[in-house]
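subagent[fold] <- orchestrator: predict structure for attached chain, return tokens only, no commentary.
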Amino acid sequence: MEIVLSVSQCVEAINIALDSLGDLVVEGEVSGFNVIHNKWVTFDIKDEKSVLKCFMTVWQLRVALEDGMLVRVTGKPNLREKGFLSFVVQSVKPAGEGSLKRAFELLQKKLAQEGLFAPERKRALPKFPQHIALITSREAAAYKDFLKVLQGRLGGLHISFIHTQVQGDDAPRQIISALETANTELENLDAIVLVRGGGSLEDLMAFNDEHVVRAVAGSRTPTIVGIGHERDVSLAELAADIRASTPSNAAELVVRSRDEILADITRMKLAISSSLANQLQNNQNNVRSAIHAMSNRLHQATRNIEQLIDRIRSVSARVKDSVASSHQKIDGMKRVLTALSPQQVLARGFSITRNSSGNILKHAANISEGEELTTTLADGSISSVVQKIGS
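subagent[fold] -> orchestrator:
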């Protein structure tokens, strides 16, 4: 019996058959890369003969892509209801050294423009941390190197170790989860240290994953990231508060050695001693300057007082001369007044005659016969009555 399928049933049957293939990894060159409404990503991958249309969400895109890059996409083919085949991408990563470098450069430029690597957002580590989170693989050499260096430095540090893969497809998810655990579940945390050994650019892809880089930059706790050898630089290192050249260097940056601390103490003692000596010298100079200024002011005040005393003496002498002269004038006036006084006139033989009204008689015309008069002499007075008035 012939089986007849509807178009929809046929599409469904094909998709069931395609789904049975499982996840496929396809390598090809990117063409027509496009981001739609900052939600969906579409592009083609092609080789010399064929083209495969790809579709994915922006959130799944963890590397920067551009046309011409060689990539490997992981996903499943799906026949759309509109009748065209689309490859639904779960993940994509550059393939080949050239594409890896280009993806690194594109993502670095993008994140730099957002300010994720800006120096002003970097935070300083505490000088003497008490509690740190160490994120790495317990099988990695970086784990042993980090702990070995710590053993030779200042003790008393509590380490919360969080194991993660540091390489492979699941490494980014595990690293992000470890950062979230450290930030939310560990109390009184001073720093987060993320390390791994060196490797090729492809080996370090987890530390160039956009979501990992953003998780490092967004950590609520100061972060240190140290990857491999000094020549290996990842975007996670650039986003961290502190970049360590190696895992061993990360340990050196987190915990200072006893010798470094003693050297710092010695330098501080010398600085304090020098500062105190300078301050003492400055104070001595200030005291000497003050004494010198005070001495000058005292000398000037003494001179002013001496000049004032001289002026007072001069004024006093002039006052004495003036007083003596005044006394002489007064004595002269006394002698003149004494000589002109009525008593002295009487003593020289003169007399004063007053009428009955007490008025001094100066003219005979002012006298009447029978009027009683009083004559004052030097040694007494005489009362008399006018009997006759002559001319």
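orchestrator: received. Logging for downstream: The CA atoms of residues 287 and 293 lie 10 Å apart. The chain has three domains: 7-95, 119-259, 329-391.
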